[in-house]
Amino acid sequence: MKFKNLFLTGLAFISLSVLAGCVSKNGNIKIAIPNDTTNEARALLLLQDKGVITLKEGAGITATVRDIEYNPKKIKFSEVEAAQIPNILRDVDYGIINSNYAIGAGINPIKEALFQEGSASPYANILVVKEGNESLPKIKALVAALESQLTADYIANKYEGSVVSVVARPTDGYAPDVDYDALKGTSISVAASPTPHAEILSIAKEILEAKGINLVIKEFTDYVQPNNVVEAGDIDANYFQHLPYLEDFNNQNKTHLVSVSAVHVEPMGLYGGKQNSLEALLK
């Protein structure tokens, strides 16, 4: 009878371990983080903010895993292309994911993130044009449409906090110093990520159509081509990145791209993979 009780106790222990998720065989927690320069740093800064790791003094928006000074849990980091982290989440203990990729993968950031950045994040997503085109009437018209109250309301209602408008004073959708009659029949082209950028641009498209302006939204699924096509002059603007990424891109590629509007922020968050709570990470 004693042996039977011990056996049942062992089974119960094993069952609970399976349900709770197991840390990697070598005893280390594995966290997948984005492998591009600014988003990797952003992920590490988030972990530092939550007290999980400490970075070397001075490590900022270009920090990498080599800048980790204190790692009490001996976390192993898997550096993965940001868009792929939702796909490999089941293979790691945790993953740090941008909200746009979480939403695209059917993950609800509000309900499923174990913790997130605050909405005051410096990583607002921006509308970008080639330097010298900032004051073109069609660009001003596009900015006013993206910074409209209609757009801000759409973001609030559609994403329920997973994406947050950062426009301080939304417009009525139209710029007072633009001659919209002169723009009738004009097309404006914008490169954008599918979610949420192209979705948000659909509201700007409706606003511009009311003035006879055609907004052409071209969807891209990578980080490089949207900047390249704007630099080449093939597309008027793009909407997919934050300012730290743009500044690093310009520096690395000798491009001449500038931000004309900060529209929304997508809080980056930590999501459970093999782990379904923060216990393994913070206990």
Keywords, separated by commas or semicolons:
single chain, 283 residues, alpha/beta, six-stranded mixed sheet, elongated
Q: Mind explaining what this structure looks like?
A:
This protein has 283 residues and is an alpha/beta fold. Helix content is 39%, strand content 22%. The protein has helices at residues 2-20, 37-49, 85-88, 99-104, 109-112, 137-146, 149-159, 180-183, 194-209, 225-232, 243-253, 279-282; strands at 30-34, 54-55, 68-70, 76-80, 94-97, 113-116, 124-130, 164-165, 187-192, 214-219, 237-242, 257-265, 269-272. The protein has a 6-stranded mixed beta sheet with strand order 8-12-7-11-9-10, sandwiched between helices. Helix 9 (194-209) links the parallel strand 9 and strand 10 (214-219). Helix 6 crosses helix 9 and helix 7 (149-159) runs antiparallel to helix 9 (194-209). The relative contact order is 0.19.
Helix content: 25-40%
The average pLDDT score comes to 90
Number of DSSP E strands: 13
The low-pLDDT segments are: 1-21
Distance between the termini: 36 Å
Which helices and strands appear, and what pairs or packs with what?
Layout: H1 2-20, E1 30-34, H2 37-49, E2 54-55, E3 68-70, E4 76-80, H3 85-88, E5 94-97, H4 99-104, H5 109-112, E6 113-116, E7 124-130, H6 137-146, H7 149-159, E8 164-165, H8 180-183, E9 187-192, H9 194-209, E10 214-219, H10 225-232, E11 237-242, H11 243-253, E12 257-265, E13 269-272, H12 279-282
Parallel strand pairs: 1-4, 1-5, 9-10, 9-11
Antiparallel strand pairs: 2-3, 5-13, 6-13, 7-11, 7-12, 8-12
Helix pairs in contact: 6-9, 7-9
